[in-house]
Amino acid sequence: MFALIGTAVDAESVRRNAAVIVEGKAIRAVVPADELREYGVDEVYGGGNHIVVPGLINAHTHVAMARFRGLGEDLPTEEWLERIIWPMEQGWTRKDIRKWAELGIREALANGSTTINDHYFFANEIAEVAERLGVRAFIGQTMMDEVDFPLASPEEGFRFFRRWLGRSELVTPVLAPHATNTVSLDLFRETAELSEETGARVHLHLAQSRAEVEGVKKRHGTSPVGLLGKTGLLNEKLIGVHGVYLGEEDFSRLAGAGSTLVHCPTSNVKLEGRTINLEKLLDLGLNVALGNDSPNPTGILDPFLEMRTAGIVANLTAGKPHAVPAREIFGMATLFGARALGLRAGLIKPGYLADLVLINAEKPWFRPMENLYSLLVYSARGSDVEVVVVDGRVVYGKGEKTEKG
């Protein structure tokens, strides 16, 4: 049993001078720090100049794409894909994937992500690395059948899913059709049936490009969201990513179905020059989580950077300042992500998963320590992370324990 001491902040409350006590895989209690001795904890991390937050949930990643960081910078998106990404992906080996997945996961952990939701090829290798490093990981093997891309065969996607279903406490397999313009109706329906049978999440790219939306309209006479409705995927288990070319009716349908949209503003603005109107989507009641997407194009797997970008860009798309409160942005990176994945996480409460992050706030950019939500969204950065706890175990730490019992 151990404790993290600092100002405990989640989407519901701020508790100063708090001790978050971890026992086993869960949070046992949250008490005033001066009462901690009554609990007989073995180790204590943090102190007065620290902040304890729920683990940040990176709801859309491609961790192994750290291999491509910085490559093809400033090329148009299609040229970047055709000249850089696709040819290099064809050359992946299992050894290479393990190497770069490890680098990407270590980067995510070091910057405060306790959970990743990863969508890529060689999912089995990525899952093995994730389990070894101790990150909580939802992993899907990318599936496509409308384009010739052997790494994304549906057979391998379903094989991976069944291989890992119920196998690990940390790694949960998801179903990962690529996008609405690269997957057939039959494959979508097969995916929906398996999701219904097993309760699995379905993670896919959704209206991330104008070409995707136009292609779906031409082939199926509907929008990408309409297509998902036709195939039985429009429900609370759906996690769609990007949505930058969807209309308000589509967003309303997603909200009404209880689906989640993952917002990746850095990637959206860099690749497409546009993104969603976050204020409108939250007003519709849509569950919106946050994701870093790939280290190329975003540059870094840092959820604090993504929160800051989301808050700033929300003002631009709404055409006014203070469009989305910092507290709600913080909730997207924690509680809303947990909701998307069906986790009892995202809040600092007894009984919740002990997925926690300790931040060293003894830095100039944390002064004054008054508006904690603003500090976490607009001032904090991944390098401020001192300790990361996943499933009740310290999996990353660069600080010293303050006490041993």
UniProtKB/TrEMBL annotation:
Keyword Hydrolase: yes
Annotated GO MF terms: hydrolase activity, acting on carbon-nitrogen (but not peptide) bonds
Domain of life: Archaea
Domain Amidohydrolase-related: 51-395
Pfam families tied to this protein: Amidohydro_1
Keyword line: Hydrolase
Keyword Hydrolase belongs to the record: yes
PANTHER family in the cross-refs: AMIDOHYDROLASE-RELATED DOMAIN-CONTAINING PROTEIN (PTHR43794:SF11), AMINOHYDROLASE SSNA-RELATED (PTHR43794)
Protein's name according to its UniProt entry: Amidohydrolase-related domain-containing protein
Originating organism: Thermococcus cleftensis (strain DSM 27260 / KACC 17922 / CL1)
